[in-house]
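[User]
Protein folding is very new to me. Any chance you could explain this protein sequence and its C-alpha cells? I have pasted everything here:
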Amino acid sequence: MSGKNASEIWDLIEAKREVFYALSDRIWDMPELNFEEHRSCAEHVAVLEQQGFRITRNVAGISTAVMGEAGEDGPVIAILGEYDALPGLSQAAGVAEQKPLIAGGNGHGCGHNLLGSGSLMAATAVKDYLEAHGIKGRVRYYGCPAEEGGSAKGFMVRAGVFDDVDIAISWHPAPFAGVNNPISLACNEINFHFSGRASHAAASPHLGRSALDAVELMNVGVNYMREHMPSTARIHYAVTDTGGIAPNVVQAKATVRYLIRARDLPEMQGLLHRVKKIAEGAALMTETSVRSEIVSGDANLVGNTPLEQLMHQNLERLGPPVFDEQDKAFAAEIQKTLTAEDIKSSFARFGLKPRMGVPLGDVIFPPESGDGTLVGSTDVGTVSWVVPTVQMRGATYAVGTPGHSWQLVAQGKAPAAHKGMEHAAKVMAGTAIDLLLDLALIDAAKADFRERLDGTPFVNPIPDDVDPPVMAQETTSQA
C-alpha cells in the first residue's frame, strides 16, 4: 500500500472512532456468556445497519451470530469479531483495585468488547474505501459468539459460512502489538457422565455403586497419564455434578468435564482416545457406566507466511500505538497490583527482553515471537484450516496484566484500550485493502495455505451430531 492509500484508510478509521469507542463501551457494560450474547449481538447489528452493511442474522443457525457484508463481486475478505465475556469477573472500570460491580457477575476479562468493536471498525473502513474508489471486492464482518470454550466458529465452519471467503483477518487484545505467532492448541471439551446405583451409605453400602468414586478414579488415572504425554499438551478438568450434597447417600450420578489440548488435531485426538479409555476403566473399577459427550472443540492455528509478512508491513508503516501520560499513569497503577514475574512473563511471551518501568506496549514485537510453549486455544484455529488466516495482537492493556483477570476488566473502557483497538483496526483495514488492490497477494496466501495442508485432511473437532446450545429458529437475511 502506498503512503497515500495508508493515510486514507487510517483517516477513515479516525473519522468514525467515536462510534466504535462507544460500541466497545456498551458491550463492556453488558457482559454476556457463551451463546447468551443477545444484547451484545443486537448492538453490533445496530451499528452494521447504521453503517449500511447487508446483514445476515442467525448465522449457522446460531441466534447470537451475525454477518454484515458490503461491496460487490471480487474477492471476499472476512474480518472476525467476538463479544462474549467470562463468568466471575465483574469489576468496576478505571480503578486499580478489585471492586466487583456485581458479586459473582460476568466481566470482559479477555477484551472481547474491544475485539468485536475493533474488527467492525476495520470492516467499516474497508467498506468506505471500496465505495469511494469503486473497487470490486467484498468485506464481511463476522460477529462470532462463544469463543470462550463455546467454539462457535467451529460450528460456523461446519455450516459452510466461510466456504466462499478468500482471506480471514482477526486480532486480539494484548500488552503489545504485533503479528500473532500462529501457534495454538487443538482442543476438545468433553463431559463424562457416570451412572451408578444409589444406596444408604451406612446401612447398605454394599448395594451402592458410586458414580462419584468413578469420577475420582478417572481423575487419578488422567493425572498419572500426564507423565506419558507430550510436554506441550494440556489437560484440565472440573467436576460439574457430584451427584448431591448428602454424604450418607451413595451418589448414583456424577459428571466431570475435561478440556484436552495438544499441539495439533491428530495429537489431540490421540489423547482424547486415551482419556476415554481411562474413563471406561474407572467405570469398570466401580461397576458403573459412563457416557461421553463432546461439548466443543477447536483446531490448532495454521499460519500463513505471506499474510503475516503483509500484516507486519502494515504495522511497521503505522508504528506502535501512541499513549499519553495519563494512559501510562493508570497502567502503572495496575502494575502495582501485579508481581515482577507477571511483568517479565508478559515480555517473554512475545519474545521481548524484560524492561521494568514500561507500563504500556511501546514497541512492535517481531514476527514469530515467543517459543509457543505457553499458549491456549482459539476457535480462529478452526477457521484457519479452511481459509488462509492472519491475526494480530493489539496493545490495549498494561504490561503484565494476566488474561482472564479483574485487572484486564478494569482497563476495558480506558482511553488506552480505545487507542489500542483503533491501532489494530488500522492495521487490519490496511492489510485488507492491500489484498484487494493486489490480487497476487491473495494468490500467494492461498498457495502457502495449500502447501501447509497438503496431505493433512481437515477433521472438524466438533462432531456432526453436536449442536450449539442455543439454536435460532431459522437463518434470516436483510438487505
Observations:
- The chain has a mean pLDDT of 95.
- The longest strand covers residues 186-195.
